[in-house]
């Protein structure tokens, strides 16, 4: 492998690594947002519980927590699928550029 093709491959791998770090930071930020939103929704549901409607409040808390968990899982799945797609395209593009290099 020539020096130029190694540089092309290294730059592509570095780009994939940078994108991976941003993806991990995005998922962590999303996790914090979901935790805060879930906490505030549960707090609102619990504060609305009265003596008569205790069961209704608990049901709302349960549905809210299940909904938040399902949305978080769905968004994380989309993020991971997007990351895999972008990573694969970047590496394949680098390999294609290396193969087009004229032999010396």
General description of the model:
With about 100 residues, the protein is mainly α. The protein has one domain (about 5-100). It is built from two helices and no strands. The relative contact order is 0.16.
Termini, distance in Å? 10 Å
Helical residue percent band: over 70%
What is the domain total for the residues?
1
User: For the report, how would you describe the main beta sheet?
Assistant: none
How many helices? 2
Uncertain runs are none
Quaternary organisation of the protein chains: single chain
Q: What's this, in brief?
A:
The chain has 104 residues and is an all-alpha fold.
Descriptive key words:
104 residues; mainly alpha
SSE inventory with pairings:
Elements: H1 3-47, H2 54-100
């Amino acid at each position: 492998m020539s020096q130029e093709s190694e540089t092309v491959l290294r730059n592509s791998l570095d780009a994939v690594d940078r994108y991976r770090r941003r993806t991990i930071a995005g998922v962590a930020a999303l996790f914090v947002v979901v935790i805060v939103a879930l906490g505030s929704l549960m707090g609102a549901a619990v504060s609305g519980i009265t003596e008569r409607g205790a069961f209704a409040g608990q049901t709302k808390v349960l549905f809210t927590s299940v909904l938040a968990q399902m949305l978080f899982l769905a968004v994380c799945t989309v993020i991971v699928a997007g990351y895999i797609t972008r990573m694969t395209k970047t590496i394949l593009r680098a390999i294609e550029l290396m193969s087009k290099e004229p032999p010396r």
